[in-house]
Backbone:
């Protein structure tokens, strides 16, 4: 009888520990344990390629929030990114948001650059100055095929100008 109670107590303790670990894993993954109160703002990007919910929001290299959601605005086909920022962060209204990459082919994140305006963004406001993601594949393609086209043009000019 004594062993059964001990085994039951240990089993309950282990289950509670596993439940606590699962809860904390989910909370850390969603960025919910950022340190208290938060507020949401929106940004509009022409291209938000690679940005997804859960991506980091950094200012001066410090994580100040998370991406809450990414959706498309059907009126102009731009990407609307919703950011959840810590409540202690007061952004001027002329702040800028950029889509950046960690390293050459790393994860995407949103970088915030504060402006110099005296007024601050209110919760639910939208950052109007944005810099979209750089599409590395198309950039490499343009460089590769652009130089090939220039060489072809130079060759064509050389043959047509010959007597």
Residues:
């Amino acid at each position: 009888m004594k062993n059964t109670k001990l085994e039951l107590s240990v089993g309950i303790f282990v289950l509670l520990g596993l439940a606590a670990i699962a809860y904390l894993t989910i909370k850390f993954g969603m960025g919910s344990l950022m340190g208290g109160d938060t507020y949401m703002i929106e940004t509009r990007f022409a291209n938000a390629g690679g940005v997804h919910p859960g991506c980091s929001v950094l200012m001066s290299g410090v994580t100040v929030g998370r991406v809450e959601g990414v959706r498309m605005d059907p009126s102009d086909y731009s990407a609307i990114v919703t950011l959840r920022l810590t409540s202690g962060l007061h952004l001027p209204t002329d702040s800028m948001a950029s889509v950046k990459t960690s390293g050459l082919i790393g994860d995407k994140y949103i970088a915030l650059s504060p402006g110099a305006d005296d007024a601050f963004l209110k919760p639910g406001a939208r950052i109007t100055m944005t810099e979209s993601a750089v599409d590395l594949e198309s950039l490499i393609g343009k460089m590769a095929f652009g130089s090939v086209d220039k060489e072809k043009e130079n060759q064509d000019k050389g043959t047509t100008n010959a007597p």
Observations:
- The CA atoms of residues 97 and 130 lie 5 Å apart.
